[in-house]
Amino acid sequence: MTEDLTERIRERVDAVYLAESRRVFATLIRLLGDFDLAEEALQEAFRAALEQWPRDGMPANPRAWLVSAGRFKAIDNIRRRARFEPLDDVAEPVAAGGDDPAAWEGEGVEDDRLRLIFTCCHPALSPDAQVALTLREVCGLTTEEIARAFLTPAPTLAQRIVRAKAKIREARIPYQVPAQPELPDRLDAVLRVIYLVFNEGYAASSGAVLTRADLSGEAIRLGRLLIELLPEPEAIGLLALMLLQESRRIARTSPSGDLVLLENQDRSLWNRDHIKEGLALVERALSSRRSGPYTLQAAIAAVHAEAPTPAATEWAQIVSLYDLLVRIEPSPVVELNRAVAVAMRDGPSAGLALIDAILARGELANYHLAHSARADLCRRMDRTAEARASYERALALTQQDPERRFLKKRLAELKK
Q: Of 11, 160, 227, 285, which is the most buried if we count CB atoms within 10 A?
């Protein structure tokens, strides 16, 4: 075989790894019953591919070849270890798989990815562990990449993942899609994890930059995968919401990285492909007549996306949607967002009264966006001293550098 052909096949192996490795990994977990064994088998399978495919040529079905190779490598490793120590619980699921690839292909290889998502988001795991495990095992991000994204030391993040895997093993958490009666509650956990990942990418909780395109991109990829495998209305609504919010990414910051408010954004920069897809998904989710919180938030985002100018925004429609959202998922943050919409519909004094009532309850006392919203309404009403105090409170609470620059700019403007 010529050197050029060998190099081309190696490039094909790399391409297969990018496209198929997480699918292969998900199936290996089902066959082997253990995350670490499956990861080891995955690496062994691709190592074998790099050795054999340049010599023997590409197989007709690379994914099936890799699953089969990984499984047999794992069996060999287990048998070798069994000579020196007792077989552990993983031997049974390995042996049960059979030697015929058709046996495991018939069980629904595509569903393996869905099983993996539900396993990583099992309610027995802490929310932090669910997010870390999903990014690591479903998305294939490295521990270092996840640690950087969430500003967590890599050893801490690694331990979180190790403990989550141990919990799955020790608690014998089943690697399966929940039964229909359990699905709504379990799906909520999956959707929450995906949206947590998206939010950290769309509006980072701290750090030098406002957004992280890699994280929001991973969340959207997970959302697409989820509705491909499980097209539930709320999963569709979540994907719509993420696409509509992501459509504004470029317009949300200036070339120097400063925050640009929605009312000041250049709408020609909004991603029209994302908006078109998002609007279609909103209609699809709403057609089920079982609108949940993600679908309603997506409908609100759709109203913004369809407004050609800030002045053309249908604020009455947005308030009505928030009224529904408050009823089905009451929270002080939802009330705050509704108060801002009321201020846009009825004037700043109406919104300020609602925000003051929320803050008086103490639930959002340490939420910087509540104080920032109050400051903005006071500024619009020429209540300068109150605006300054609220901006200063918001500044003391935020850890996001672009938001800090924005708040400092507002404070400087009040002194003029």
A: 285
281/403 Cα distance (integer angstroms): 31
- What is the rounded distance in angstroms from the CA atom of residue 242 to the CA atom of residue 201? 11
- 8 Å CB contact between 80 and 35: no
Structure tokens at 94: 């390995």
Q: What predicted TM-score, i.e. pTM, was given to this entire model? A: 0.76
DSSP result, 300-361: HHHHHHH-SSGGG--HHHHHHHHHHHHHHS--HHHHHHHHHHHHHHH-HHHHHHHHHHHHHT
Q: Enumerate the β-bridge partners of residue 399.
A: 206
Cα–Cα distance for residue pair 148/145, rounded to 1 Å: 5
pLDDT at residue 266 above 60?
Answer: yes
Tens digit of each residue's pLDDT (9 = 90 or more) over 192-247: 888 888 887 776 554 555 556 777 888 898 899 889 878 999 999 999 999 999 99
Angle at 337 between CA 257 and CA 402, to 5 degrees: 15
**Nearest to 295, CA basis, from 277, 283, 313:** 283
Whether residue 243 contacts residue 220, with contact meaning beta carbons closer than 8 Å, is answered with yes
- Asked whether 44 and 38 are in contact (CB, 8 A), the reply is no
CA distances from 87 to 98, 174, 194, 264 (A): 18, 20, 37, 64
Give me the torsion for CA of 163, 165, 167, 172, rounded to 10°.
Answer: -170
Residue 228 near residue 275 (C-beta atoms within 8 A): no
Asked if 116 and 100 count as a contact pair (C-beta separation under 8 A), the reply is no
Which 3-state string (H, E, C) describes 188-256? HHHHHHHHHHHHHHHCCCEECCCCCHHHHHHHHHHHHHHHHHCCCHHHHHHHHHHHHHHCCCHHHECCC
Task: Provide the CA 84 distance to its chain's centre, in angstroms.
Answer: 43
Rounded alpha-carbon distances, angstroms, from residue 241 to 8, 55, 300, 310: 40, 48, 9, 19
Q: Using CA atoms, how far apart are residues 146 and 160, in angstroms rounded to an integer? A: 11
How would DSSP label each residue in 355-402? HHHHHHTTTTTT-HHHHHHHHHHHHHTT-HHHHHHHHHHHHHH-EEHH
Q: Which residue has the tokens 């985002």?
A: 301
d(CA 109, CA 30): 9
Measured N-to-C along each axis, helices 233-246 and 272-286 cross at an angle, to the nearest 10 degrees, of 160
